[in-house]
Backbone:
């Protein structure tokens, strides 16, 4: 369980940092981080860091298609968590 906790801290830090980096690149007119990469890091457990990065840096908050994918990933993670939780503690 300790491994999972450390993994989630690291992946969320990376997600938060990527949103910051993407926003900085947008401001400077440089090549951005692809939406696919931003969503992939969220899908691998960085949803909280990604969400905080989106809100803090106002990054990708107005793009509907991105938000739909992001919240779809969040919903799937919540379903997975409760399915795992239920299976682990009620069997």
Residues:
């Amino acid at each position: 369980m300790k491994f999972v906790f450390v993994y989630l801290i690291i992946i969320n830090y990376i997600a938060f940092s990527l949103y910051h980096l993407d926003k900085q690149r947008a401001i400077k007119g440089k090549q951005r981080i692809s939406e696919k990469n931003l969503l992939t890091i969220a899908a691998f457990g960085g949803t909280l860091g990604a969400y905080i990065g989106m809100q803090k840096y106002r990054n990708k908050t107005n793009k509907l298609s991105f938000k739909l994918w992001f919240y779809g990933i969040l919903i799937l993670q919540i379903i997975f968590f409760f399915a795992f939780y239920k299976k682990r503690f009620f069997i």
Observations:
- The chain has a mean pLDDT of 92.
- Residues 1-90 form one domain.
- Helices lie at 2-28, 35-57, 64-90.
